[in-house]
Write a structure and sequence with these properties.
The complex is a heterodimer of chains A (147) and B (509).
Chain A (H helix, E strand, L loop, with lengths): L2 H12 L6 H12 L7 H8 L3 H10 L11 E6 L2 H4 L3 H12 L6 E2 L2 E6 L11 E3 L2 E3 L4 H9 L1
Parallel strand pairs in A: 1-3
Antiparallel strand pairs in A: 1-4, 2-3, 4-5
Helix pairs in contact in A: 1-2, 6-7
Chain B lengths: L1 E3 L4 H5 L2 H14 L5 E3 L13 E5 L2 E5 L7 H6 L7 E4 L4 H4 L17 H6 L4 H8 L2 H11 L11 H10 L6 E6 L8 H8 L1 H15 L3 E6 L4 H16 L15 E6 L9 H8 L23 E5 H13 L1 H5 L2 E2 L2 E2 L1 E8 L5 E6 L4 H8 L9 E6 L6 E2 L10 H6 L8 E6 L4 H15 L5 H18 L5 H15 L3 H5 L1 H10 L14
Parallel strand pairs in B: 1-2, 6-7, 6-9, 7-8, 12-16
Antiparallel strand pairs in B: 1-3, 3-4, 4-5, 10-11, 12-13, 14-15, 14-16
Helix pairs in contact in B: 6-10, 6-13, 7-8, 9-10, 9-11, 10-13, 17-18, 17-21, 18-19
The chains are: A alpha+beta (147), B alpha/beta (509).
The structure holds flavin mononucleotide, iron/sulfur cluster and FE2/S2 (inorganic) cluster.
Amino acid sequence: MSQAERISEIVACHRGREGALLPMLHELQAAFGCVPVEAHKPICAALGITAAELQGVIAFYEDFRAAPQGRHVIRVCRAEACQAMGAEAMIARLERALGVRLGETVGAVTLEAVYCLGLCACGPAAQVDDRLIARATPERLAEEVRA
Amino acid sequence: MKIYVPGDAAARALGADAVAAAVASQAGLRGLDIEIVRNGSRGMIWLEPLVEVETEAGRIGFGPLEPADVPALFDAPETHPKALGLVEEIPFFKAQTRLTFARVGRIDPLSLADYEAEGGLAGLRRALEMSAEARLDEVLASGLRGRGGAGFPAGIKWKTVAGAKAAQKVVVCNADEGDSGTFADRMLMEGDPFALIEGMAIAGLSVGATQGFVYIRSEYPNAIAVMRAACDAARGAGLLGPALLGNGPAFDIEIRVGAGAYVCGEETSLLNSLEGKRGTVRAKPPLPALHGFMGRPTVVNNVLTLATVPWIFAHGAEAYAAFGVGRSRGTMPFQLAGNIRHGGLFETAFGTTLGDLVEGIGGGTASGRPVKAVQIGGPLGAYFTPADFDMKLGYEECAERDGIVGHAGLVVFDDTADMGALARFAMEFCAHESCGMCTPCRIGSTRGVEVIDAMRAGDPEAETLLRDLCEVMTHGSLCALGGFAPYPVLSALNAFPAEFRPPRKEVAE
Ligand SMILES: Cc1cc2nc3c(=O)[nH]c(=O)nc-3n(C[C@H](O)[C@H](O)[C@H](O)COP(=O)(O)O)c2cc1C
Ligand code: SF4
Ligand code: FES
């Protein structure tokens, strides 16, 4: 299926729902790793919103992005309960070990901050792709992306 | 033989999937016919993965288990080095009053049969037989207050929605749980999803709503998957759908997923997000109760508020209200987080003291160092010190000491914490998450970061500036993001002023 076909399929599947935009954007991102610009026109047409409105929504939410991330995504929790378990120092060591800074993608690896994963009694918490990791160490996280 | 290996996200993050695989393969090798149940977590997170083996005497626990510990589970369970005895006799578990979490960890989360066998659906059945008036009175009489943070009486909110005239009304469950140090909503959804579904059904029935949503943060993929499966199962069994339990009014639930915005936990921002808009905060009035999702009268309640409703209907409002202290009735699932030895979820009646939970139940810090501060109620909650360990945990009791209960997360810090840095983080977080609707929050929080930096660089005027700024944010913000961010900042400043000054220079020798 071409990209355009897949886009119109996803848009058509959600357009009838109330408040369809977020479910639509989530599914587009699951399919393409981002919300491709090619999807903007079909979304606006289906929902009767302007390009500016759509842009405003995409920009508002941390989750939505215009370009895909690295093949591996490491998300490290920076919120208070994880800070209490040394998250800041852990993250600093991880940045050095990987040669990637928070918010950057280098090669296949994206490193980003997250504010709470609901693992606050076993921090520092992290997520590598779809795997949650408690009591994270830089060594363990680096190993996960090499695996 | 039944073996329980939690499927809860925290247990999985600690390796429960590998343990479950080891249990299956060891049983296979020995030709044993076992059933592995992926239950919710018992909430004793330091013991996860906590495996339970069903025996005639009861369920015996083993933990924290690694795959290498599994063979001995079959060879010599009595002498297993990680044997914990009967799980429900472990002091941390036994000391609780589990009403909202009564079934979590005990049942297969997706088995409606288990759910009913452990008292599920009794509340909805009773509610279906009651008059509309009696249902609302039941919630009011229970004293149940919103568990999402604001502590507003659930019964009053429901009465307002019930009294509104509209062709369609809505029940929205707020499962955005963005506060650091909280995970009770997640554990409930993963461990007993039908309790939330039943609570929402009772809410729908009570206010005359037919449409339901659960808005779950995207950081909770495990909870999203369980809730989706549970809604499908409930629909398949005729619990939800055109007629509640086959003979009630229509009510159905849809799962919606957030997109990484903390402010979307604020109810009006959440409604905008559900409608497919930017998650900016709406001015009140109009109240969501009268003008909520798509302009329809809408109940917005937290996961725990709704999941407690079935217990109240099954056991009666009086039984619930018998627990608690002052105007905080019933129980609260407190979450012990951060640097704490026995971290996890502890449900108990309001009125327990902070010290009991942190030092007694929680066993002090994980690092073994002295407790320096405890932040209660998430990133907008105040920092307390051991001097407040006598404080009873209740809405008014915490407010008297300039703090909040919030969603009842307790984040413990040891004496290595830098309180100036934590105050700065509170402002930074507020700036990062501000929805931008009002200036005190949008601009003030960024100024707050700068002013704290100036203080720490030695600017003598900065403290007055910071206090003025907090005053403006407290009184001039539209919602509690900007309005409460001063709580952690000022509480840290008042208790630890030295940590807002430049580090003292070493005296030259
Ligand atoms: C910035 C902000 C974030 C909030 N986040 C949540 C949240 O994640 N979950 C929640 O239930 N309530 C949250 N609230 C409170 C809601 O606005 C609202 O009071 C609550 O959902 C009502 O339900 P309850 O009465 O059952 O607590 C938040 C409020 C603010 C100001
Ligand atoms: S206080 Fe902050 S988050 Fe709340 S409405 Fe104002 S700008 Fe938005
Ligand atoms: S604060 Fe890090 S997982 Fe909750």
